[in-house]
Amino acid sequence: MSPIEKDHRRGLNGALAAEIRSELGAQDKTQTWLSDESGIERLTLRRYLKAERGMTTAVVEAVTEALGLDPGELMVRAVVRRDREPATYGPTARPARPDFSSFDDADMAARSEDTEPKRLGDDD
Questions:
Q1: Contact assessment for residue 11 and residue 89, using Cβ atoms and an 8 Å cutoff
Q2: Are 24 and 50 in contact (CB under 8 A)?
Q3: Global pTM?
Q4: Residue 2, CB half-sphere, CA atoms under 13 Å: how many?
Q5: Residues 40, 58, 74, 71: is their CA dihedral positive or negative?
Q6: What digits encode the pLDDT tens for the residues 66-89?
Q7: Do 10 and 90 touch, CB atoms closer than 8 A?
Q8: In the 8-state DSSP scheme, what is residue 13?
């Protein structure tokens, strides 16, 4: 995985959001309840739980405190989920960088195929 995943739905952030949603369901709690208990504005919390925003440690701490969970336990569960479901939470495929060295090779080949007759003052 890349050092910084730009798609927040992927990687650990997406798995963490899924674990929080799962825990909310298991405790029969709503996002509105979690917003009130955690002090996180409702629409902002919704974006975190849809994995549209990356969660900070302060957000994780507020959410786990409201849910009565240990932050480390929740993170371990998220890591297990991410590793168990790589198609959903694995890294985003990134196109390979082009090999720019081939342009130099092509340029040299084109110069060697130059059929124009040499003129006075041309370099050899």
A1: yes
A2: no
A3: 0.67
A4: 12
A5: negative
A6: 999 999 999 999 999 888 888 777
A7: yes
A8: H
